[in-house]
Design goal:
Helix content: 25-40%
Distance between the termini: 57 Å
Number of helices: 3
Number of domains: 2
Structural class: alpha+beta
Shape: elongated
Strand order of the largest sheet: 3-4-5-6-7-8
Bound molecules: zinc ion
Largest sheet: 6 strands, antiparallel
């Protein structure tokens, strides 16, 4: 048996709180016995009737139509599409792009993070981090902006201080600073 669209939408909510394990438990509970390999999950995951992965929503079939994709899209995903379209058409933010930072070291685990495109800067925030003037998890420990012809990374690496702790300019990375022998 494969999961229905309704069950998929419930799985999306479960994933937000409990990750893949919560979805696996749910699938077993409701009797989903058709599992197949999902490339993004790098695992065998429960199947949905709409031919997508119950855990991450990725298509398990290459030729899934746009109509099928829209059918299984959650309200949250549709909202994301709308705000991206608005950003692409008008350049007006914010457009929020959620990401999961997988640990690249020896330790297993990940951190939910988000990149926000504002009209004139890029903001970064992550679960477990914030800045001095914003609630936990909601603030921005760093941003990227252009200021007087130069691109800067402003780092707020002290949650008890309002001003940036570091203002890193990308001056040294400009093309015209390249040594002649490495000219590209
Ligand atoms: Zn998946």
């Amino acid at each position: 048996m494969k999961a229905t669209n309704k069950q998929y939408k419930k799985a999306v909510k479960l994933y937000e709180d409990g990750g893949a394990t919560a979805v696996y438990d749910y699938a077993k509970e409701i009797g989903i016995d058709e599992w197949s390999t999902c490339e993004p999950c790098e695992a065998k995951t429960p199947d949905c009737k709409s031919k997508c992965c119950l855990v991450c929503g990725s298509s398990k079939e290459q030729n899934l139509t746009l109509k099928d994709r829209l059918k299984i899209a959650t309200n949250k995903q549709l909202q994301e599409c709308r705000s991206l379209l608005k950003y692409r058409q008008t350049g007006k933010g914010p457009f929020m792009f959620p990401i999961i930072l997988k640990d690249r070291g020896e330790v297993k685990g990940n951190t939910k993070a988000c990149i926000t495109l504002e009209n004139d800067c890029i903001l970064f925030n992550a679960k477990g981090y914030s800045d001095c003037v914003t609630a936990n998890d909601q603030g921005y420990p760093f941003l990227i902006e252009r200021y007087n012809k130069e691109i800067y990374i402003r780092l707020y690496n002290d949650i008890n201080t309002e001003d940036p702790t570091d203002n890193i300019s990308l001056r040294g990375a400009r093309n015209d600073n390249r040594n002649k022998e490495f000219v590209k």
